[in-house]
Amino acid sequence: MSNTPPVAAQGYWTARKRREALLFLAFAAPNILLIAIFTYRPLLANLNYSTLDWTLGAEEATRVGFRNYAEFFTSGDAPVVLRTTAVFTLATVGGSMLLGLLVAVALNLKVRGAPVARAAVFAPYVLSGVGVGLVWLFIFDPVYGALAALLRAIGLASPQWINNPDLALLMVIIVYVWKNLGYCAVVYLAGMQAVPKDLMEAAAVDGAGPMRRFWSITLPLLSPSSFFLLITTLLSSLQAFDILRIMVPSGRGVGTLIYEAYLQAFSTYNRAGYSAAISVVLFVFLLLATIVQIRFVERKVHYA
């Protein structure tokens, strides 16, 4: 006769699992509720508004289906807006990541004053975009600006940064990259300091020089940092607004998707339904960019 005590039949919801489920709900439910109210509810409302012919502030609106989308993509403005959005996004993402990587290499050197330099590089990222835009607007001013004074000192005239649409786009790209490269530098610096030192020492013993170690060891091991930065900076650039609005209030030359949505709703047009349709187009681009990166780019990431 066996001495093993009989095992009582137990269901899936044991007392322990019930306590864990209640604890999970206690922490997660408030956040889920806030996200539903302040993120998904406005998203669904915006989808509804995009099917309306609605003037902002009017009490009545007419449902027009997908006519706002058709008008946007068949208008002459769509190619300009999409091209400006693509140029601004690619330039700011690529510029921030490339310069951030170079700055991180410099900050990773063991020299005196490195902690102060790291704080100075990261500081612009936490500053208000409005304040940054106002300061750089003074620098780029073709009459009273600091850059104009430097150019006059060497006998050159200042470019019309604000009145020229191409230069206006270049101007906001420079400012946006300057503001955000510190963020990329700090993320890359953290990745560099996580590279195993014994691996670098072994490569040095085998005769690999600093450049060879950087290209063959450091850079591949930074791929998780690059992947993270690619997603976050891409989403941030597509939603950039404050610097563009402050530096070029007319929107000439800097009309990205989000800026065009703002101008259509709150400028002289007051076309809330048309603006909502442009916002949905931007949301679709953000969603597709995130899916493509997670689906294809993550395969190239080397996790240590």
TrEMBL record:
It is a multi-pass membrane protein. Residues 82-293 form the ABC transmembrane type-1 domain. Its main location: membrane. Coiled coil: none annotated. It comes from the Bacteria. InterPro entries: ABC_transporter_permease (IPR051393), MetI-like (IPR000515), MetI-like_sf (IPR035906). The chain crosses the membrane at residues 21-40, 86-107, 119-139, 167-190, 221-241, 272-292. It is found in: Cell membrane. It holds the Pfam family BPD_transp_1. Belongs to the binding-protein-dependent transport system permease family. This is Sn-glycerol 3-phosphate transport system permease protein. It comes from Brooklawnia cerclae.
